[in-house]
Amino acid sequence: MSRGLVDAPPSPSPSTSRRAGVRWLRWSIAIALALVLLVVGTTAVIYVKLTGNVKHIEVTQDDLGATRPPKVAGTAMNVLIVGSDQRDGKNARYGRTPGERTDTIMLAHVSSRRDTAIVVSFPRDSLVQLPFCRAKGALPGQRPHLGMINESFNSGGITCTWKTIEALTGIHIDHFVKVDFTGFKSMVDAVGGVEVCLPERVDDTKALLHLPAGRQTLDGEQALGYVRARYSLGDGSDIGRIQRQQMFIASMVQKVMSGETLTNPARLLGFLDAGTKAVTTDPGLTPGVMKDLAGSLQGLTAGQIRFITTPWHYSLSQPGRVEWVQPQATRLFRLVARDSGPERVKGGQTKVSRSKVQIELRNGTYRGGLGSQVAAALEQRGYHITKVTDAARKPQAKTLILYSPNGETRVPTLATDLITATPRPVPGARTSRLVLVVGDDWKGLKALRTGDTDALDGFDATHDTCAA
Prior knowledge:
Layout: H1 19-39, H2 44-53, E1 55-56, H3 61-64, E2 77-86, E3 100-110, E4 117-122, E5 127-130, E6 145-148, H4 151-169, E7 175-179, H5 184-190, E8 194-198, E9 202-204, E10 209-211, E11 214-218, H6 220-228, H7 238-256, H8 259-262, H9 265-276, E12 279-281, H10 287-296, E13 305-309, E14 312-314, E15 322-324, H11 328-337, H12 343-346, E16 358-363, H13 370-381, E17 384-389, E18 400-403, H14 411-417, E19 422-425, E20 434-438, E21 459-460
Parallel strand pairs: 1-12, 2-7, 4-13, 16-17, 16-20, 18-19
Antiparallel strand pairs: 2-3, 3-4, 5-6, 7-12, 8-11, 9-10, 13-21, 14-15, 18-20
Helix pairs in contact: 1-7, 1-9, 2-9, 5-6, 5-9
């Protein structure tokens, strides 16, 4: 049923910046490539070829300062991943702007036991305390102040971003990977396309995207439209697109690690060749180091690669910005710094994690904008919002959670977070997505418990975007 559990009227999408889609494109492919380079072995011939592709930037102890976090004992590896937004050359078609900037900062942690990899995402609009960075080359440096996390790259380049993440998280970073993806489409085509799932048909003229509902494999041109689209997918927010792009990364990683790619030398080489031509690393992270690491990760599966977003909430002092939720964020950083996996936090919890619950949200009241407000609150908890309709034909008295037999196990997760809601089954529907109809009795979400660790669970690279 492509329209959800029951019919609902369409709603207008919020106006947003079109250029942000291109930035999300870069970080999506950056992370996929970095993960593949870390977990896929290479032959000697490929090693020689990749060595000639990779560029390097020196990062010195003077750049990072004398008070760095200590490196934990063992062989755990932490790699900073940055998606670069540079508007020259082939990128000028997306709007020519001077210099280089980043809207994507993530950290890939590979455990010392080589039995798990965790990718932590730092929202680009995070308000954080930025440290001092010295001037370097044409970059002015950074004074200590409260600002957006991506300012560090503009002020001091990759070395300042490295120092900032270490200062904020207490995690010792070993290497960095910076990627500017002008060759994005060829990389997608090199692996035979990437699978996605759409809850309903998409016709987005701005993104030049026209796709049917359901599971499908996108080629490079279609994938470009998919990652740029905003108005026609989800709830139209930046956070909603982050969640969608994380699923895209997971799908690409799963595809590259699958037998159809690893057993096809031409396809694997094409992907790695296209990717490494756009990669810049520190001199220590050579293809040889990646190859040695890959040798110890042969048993790692897509299900052991997890994606986690730093726990966040919208800022009350600066609208449009986000702040990190404590103590959950600090707890996540401590687990990574000490090489402890988030699976140890979950313990015996049996309910479905919020990150695996997809919700279509409908405003059943005459209160304009309530649907978008509820969507934002649920996103802060880690839910995935697939669609928001913010217009009611007639008022709905009670708040309802509509679900099919396939989605029944997800109802307790959402119901636990809501002050009031009545679950109602919809027989015959074949989706595990939930539909939340906000009624006149809406009283909001329950306060988040201090010990709530659901935000530290995330999802793994086998996550099915169809959720059915």
